[in-house]
Amino acid sequence: MVQESLPGVLDHRTFSRVRVDLGRCDICGKGKTVYRSQEAQAGICEGCYARLVREWNAKAGVR
To answer: The domain containing residue 39 runs over which residues?
Structure first.
């Protein structure tokens, strides 16, 4: 079951890249977790992290 994050719920700035295996992405469940947020207690894959950044940039008016 693929899930999408709610816009504005997760802040990409709280995530940091990890080098250890933390399992699968908490959002899509497909990709390997490569970013982790201790604040949000979530791990996400490269694709979901990129989507978070794109959403934030769109709100900020960045192209």
So the answer is: 12-58
